[in-house]
């Protein structure tokens, strides 16, 4: 199944959501679903930086690196010349 853009308004009204909940609680739609395969999720990591507000403001106004993927260790390169490690992607 390929998701396409739809013209539906989200979130839906509470009354409509209640009707849908009642319907799907009493109807089995599993036959309409495509079969899939289980994929093990990739490990995730979160990085949080606490920086002074003026530094964040300066970073937001700096041009971004031309590469599409910026490594977390390369964030300082937005405001300084890139290091050799940041040049390698």
What value does the Rg take, in angstroms? 23 Å
| Percentage of residues assigned to helices | 25-40%
Q: N-to-C SSE series?
A: HHH
Overall residue-averaged pLDDT value: 75
Number of helical stretches of at least 4 residues: 3
User: Structural class of the helices, strands and pairings?
Assistant: mainly alpha
Q: Oligomeric form of this entry? A: single chain
The major sheet is characterized as: none
What form results from the Cα inertia axes?
elongated
Estimate what percentage of residues fall within beta strands: under 5%
Distance between the termini: 34 Å
How many beta-strand elements?
A: 0
Low-confidence stretches: none
In words, what does this structure look like?
The chain has 89 residues and is mainly alpha-helical. It is 29% helix and 0% strand. It has three helices and no strands. The protein starts with 13 loop residues before the first helix and ends with a helix.
For the structure shown, list the relevant keywords.
89 residues; mainly alpha
Write the layout of secondary structure elements.
Elements: H1 14-26, H2 53-61, H3 84-87
Offer a quick outline of the entry.
The protein has 89 residues and is an all-alpha fold. 29% of the residues lie in helices and 0% in strands.
